[in-house]
Amino acid sequence: MTWMNSEAFTLFGQHIIWSDMIGNILGLITLALGWRRSLWTWPLQFLSGLVLFAAFYGHLTGSAGKQAVVMVVALYGWWQWQRGRGTADDGRITVRFASWRERGLMLAAAAVGTVAVALLFTAYPKLSWDPWPDAYIFVGTIVAMYAQAKGMVEFWFAWLLVDLVGVPLNFANGYAFSGFVYVIYGALVLWGMRDWWLRSRRGPQPALEGAPA
């Protein structure tokens, strides 16, 4: 898989790597399928993780490990959407807003997870090129995928927060194609957020804890 870490072409003075390009194109398609609530979003997410895992394995151990976690969460998402398929009028999954308790748990998991992963990356510098931002993006991605698996509209908010750090970090570290893709991610996120938000209003909503009846 050495060729995957070689240069594909140069764009605006930035060197585009094959693995970076292929993995992120698959990731972009995955996000578009997630917006459409297509079950195929999860096999494509798994394939994207597999491509990047193969590219990083034996070269960037930390990055390979992160992709392995992404693949596991993709399998979980597939299982969740298989169970929830057919609950919406169009035969796909029903989307909803998370309860306040779910939001609190996801925020706590993101905060604790980011600190724990950043400390791990700091202790083992070979695992990451920039421990704290890298940990934030990694944990944020996992939280976003979990929310997506549960059909929560907050999935899009989590992706937006990941993008805010992911774009400058990728450009700064030479992953130009990832940076360009994250910009497109941002547009898709806003579009998908609007669609899921409107869909969540069409069906019964779980009572938000602490909200007035």
Automatic annotation (TrEMBL):
TM helices/strands, residue ranges: 12-35, 42-60, 105-124, 136-162, 174-193
Top-level division of the source organism's lineage: Bacteria
Membrane topology: Multi-pass membrane protein
UniProt keyword terms in alphabetical order: Cell membrane, Membrane, Transmembrane, Transmembrane helix, Transport
Main location: membrane
Cellular localisation: Cell membrane
Protein name per Swiss-Prot or TrEMBL: Nicotinamide riboside transporter PnuC
Organism: Streptomyces cinerochromogenes
